[in-house]
C-alpha cells in the first residue's frame, strides 16, 4: 500500500477498518479531555468496558451464594477455568486440552521447568537469547542453581553480532547444533521485549528437537499479537501473561501450554496440587495424586476467580474477532507507523533515531522499537507530556505498540505531528 502522511488519508484508512469500532469498547486515560494515544499495550493493555460486567457477576454471585457459587452460579467457579480452553487454543494454535490458566507468568515457568528441565549427565545446558526479559534470566539462573549448577556453566546466551541490534537466526541454529548432546533446553522469548523481533519458533523448535533437547517459549509479547501454531510446531511447553495484548489487567493470571505428547508421560516430574487432581474425584479428598488428563493436570491451587473474570472477558473478545483479522490490521497499522517514522526522519533535520525492529512483517508483531541517537529521554518525556503514552527502555529506546484492537490510523498520524514538534523542541535545549 502507498501511504500518505496526512490526516485525510489516515481517516480514510479508519473508514475502511472493520475493527475501528472496537476502539470505543475500551477505556482510555485522558489528556486535556481527550483520549491519549496509547502505545503501551505491550506492557499493559487498556481495560475493555465489558470487563466490569464479568467481575461484577462474580462479586454478585459471591454476595448472594457465598460458597454455593462454586457449583450454582451461572459460571460455576469450580470449572471456571475450563471456559478458557477453546478461545485460548485458537489464540495460540493449540488443542483445547493443551492449554490452561493459573498463577502468573514466572510462577508458571518455574512449575513447567520442574517437568521440562531435567538435566542428566552432560546434557545440562539451557540456551536462551541475550537480553531476555530479566524475569526469565532470574528464573533460569535460579533453576540451574537448584539443580546444583553455576549459571555460567549451564546457561548459554545467543549473542548479537557486534554492531547489530537483533539476533540472527542462523546464529541460533548454529549454537544449537554446536551444543548438541549437552543441550537440555532451548528457552527463548517468542518476541524479544526490547527489540520487538519475532523469532522463527517453528524452525528453532525443530532444531532443538533434532539434537534431543526440550524446547519451550515465553510468549508474553507473542500471545494475542502474532500468529502461533504451538501444537503443529511441536513446541513442548510455553507460558504467557494476559495483561499485555490480552488486556486482562495489571499482573493478572497467566496462560500456559503443554503439548499433548507429554500428557501421559508418568516419568515427568511435576509439583502437584489439588486442582490438578482428577476432576471427578477431587472432592473425595484422596491421599494420592491422580492428574487430570491434559494441561489442566499441571494446575496446583484453587483458581483465583476474581482474576480470571477480566481475562475471560478479553479472550471472548478475541474469539469474536479472531486472530486473522487482528493480524491483518496489525500488519497495516504497524507499517503505517513505520512509514510515519521514516517521513519524520526525512522532514526534520534534527531527527536522529533508528527503528531497530525488523522491517520484515514475518519478523515483527505490532511493536516498533525506536533507538534514539540524539534526543534521549527528553523526547520520551515530551511525548508523555503531550498525550502520547509510550514506553522507555534503557539505554535509549522508545517502544511503540499500535495495538489493533484500540489504535486508529488517525492516532498514528497525530503521533507523527507530536513527534515532529517534540524533536524540534528538544533540539532547542
Walk me through what this model shows.
The mean pLDDT is 95. The longest helix has 25 residues, at 323-347. 37% of the residues lie in helices and 14% in strands. The protein is built from 13 helices and 15 strands. The protein has 429 residues and is of the alpha/beta class. α2 (51-65) packs antiparallel against α10 (305-321), α4 packs across α10 (305-321) and α12 (377-385) packs across α13. Its EC number is 3.7.1.3. Homodimer. It catalyses: L-kynurenine + H2O = anthranilate + L-alanine + H(+); 3-hydroxy-L-kynurenine + H2O = 3-hydroxyanthranilate + L-alanine + H(+). Pyridoxal 5'-phosphate binds at residues 105-106, 133-136, 218, 221, 243, 274, 302.
Features:
EC 3.7.1.3; single chain; alpha/beta; seven-stranded mixed beta sheet; pyridoxal phosphate; four-stranded antiparallel beta sheet; 429 residues; pyridine nucleotide biosynthesis; PyrdxlP-dep_Trfase
Structure in a nutshell:
It catalyses: L-kynurenine + H2O = anthranilate + L-alanine + H(+); 3-hydroxy-L-kynurenine + H2O = 3-hydroxyanthranilate + L-alanine + H(+). By secondary structure, the protein is α/β, with parallel strands linked by helices.
β-strand amount: 5-15%
Order of strands side by side in the largest beta sheet? Answer: 4-10-9-8-7-5-6
Low-confidence stretches: none
SSE pattern, N- to C-terminal: HEEEHHHEHEHHEHEHEEEHHEEHEEEH
**Radius of gyration over all CA atoms, rounded:** 23 Å
Distance between the termini: 38 Å
Shape: globular
Function: Catalyzes the cleavage of L-kynurenine (L-Kyn) and L-3-hydroxykynurenine (L-3OHKyn) into anthranilic acid (AA) and 3-hydroxyanthranilic acid (3-OHAA), respectively.
Pathway: Amino-acid degradation; L-kynurenine degradation; L-alanine and anthranilate from L-kynurenine: step 1/1; Cofactor biosynthesis; NAD(+) biosynthesis; quinolinate from L-kynurenine: step 2/3
GO molecular function: kynureninase activity
Pfam families: Aminotran_5, KYNU_C
Amino acid at each position: 500500500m502507498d501511504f500518505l502522511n496526512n490526516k485525510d488519508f489516515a481517516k480514510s484508512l479508519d473508514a475502511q477498518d472493520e475493527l475501528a469500532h472496537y476502539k470505543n469498547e475500551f477505556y482510555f486515560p485522558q489528556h486535556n479531555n481527550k483520549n491519549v494515544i496509547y502505545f503501551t499495550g505491550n506492557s499493559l493493555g487498556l481495560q475493555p468496558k465489558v470487563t466490569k460486567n464479568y467481575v461484577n457477576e462474580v462479586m454478585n454471585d459471591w454476595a448472594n451464594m457465598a460458597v454455593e457459587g462454586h457449583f450454582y452460579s451461572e459460571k460455576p467457579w469450580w470449572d471456571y477455568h475450563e471456559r478458557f480452553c477453546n478461545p485460548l487454543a485458537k489464540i495460540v494454535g493449540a488443542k483445547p486440552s493443551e492449554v490452561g490458566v493459573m498463577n502468573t507468568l514466572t510462577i508458571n515457568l518455574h512449575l513447567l521447568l520442574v517437568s521440562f528441565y531435567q538435566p542428566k549427565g552432560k546434557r545440562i545446558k539451557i540456551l536462551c537469547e541475550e537480553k531476555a526479559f530479566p524475569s526469565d534470566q532470574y528464573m533460569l539462573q535460579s533453576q540451574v542453581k537448584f539443580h546444583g549448577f553455576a549459571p555460567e556453566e549451564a546457561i548459554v546466551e545467543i549473542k548479537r553480532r557486534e554492531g547489530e541490534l537483533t539476533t540472527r537466526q542462523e546464529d541460533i541454529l548454529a549454537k544449537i547444533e554446536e551444543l548438541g548432546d549437552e543441550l537440555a533446553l532451548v528457552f527463548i522469548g517468542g518476541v524479544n521485549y526490547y527489540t520487538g523481533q519475532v523469532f522463527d519458533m517453528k524452525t528453532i523448535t525443530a532444531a532443538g528437537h533434532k539434537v534431543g533437547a526440550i524446547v519451550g517459549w515465553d510468549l508474553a509479547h507473542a500471545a494475542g499479537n502474532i500468529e502461533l501454531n504451538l501444537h503443529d510446531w511441536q513446541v513442548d511447553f510455553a507460558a504467557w501473561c494476559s495483561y499485555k495484548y490480552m488486556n486482562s489487567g495489571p499482573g493478572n493470571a497467566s496462560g500456559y501450554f503443554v503439548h499433548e505428547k507429554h500428557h501421559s508421560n508418568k516419568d515427568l516430574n511435576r509439583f502437584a496440587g489439588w486442582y490438578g487432581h482428577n476432576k471427578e474425584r477431587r472432592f473425595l479428598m484422596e491421599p494420592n495424586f491422580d492428574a487430570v488428563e491434559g494441561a489442566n493436570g499441571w494446575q496446583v491451587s484453587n483458581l483465583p476467580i476474581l482474576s480470571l473474570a477480566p481475562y475471560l472477558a478479553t479472550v471472548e473478545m478475541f474469539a469474536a474477532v479472531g486472530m486473522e483479522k487482528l493480524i491483518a490490521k496489525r500488519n497495516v497499522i504497524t507499517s503505517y507507523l513505520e512509514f510515519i517514522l521514516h517521513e519524520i526522519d526525512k522532514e526534520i533535520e534534527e531527527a536522529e533515531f533508528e527503528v531497530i525492529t525488523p522491517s520484515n512483517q514475518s519478523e515483527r508483531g505490532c511493536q516498533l522499537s525506536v533507538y534514539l541517537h540524539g534526543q534521549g529521554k527528553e523526547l520520551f518525556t515530551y511525548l508523555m507530556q503531550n498525550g502520547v503514552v509510550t514506553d522507555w527502555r534503557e539505554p535509549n529506546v522508545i517502544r511503540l505498540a499500535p495495538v489493533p484492537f484500540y489504535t486508529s490510523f488517525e492516532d498514528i498520524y497525530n503521533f507523527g505531528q507530536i513527534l515532529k514538534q517534540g524533536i524540534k523542541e528538544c533540539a532547542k535545549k
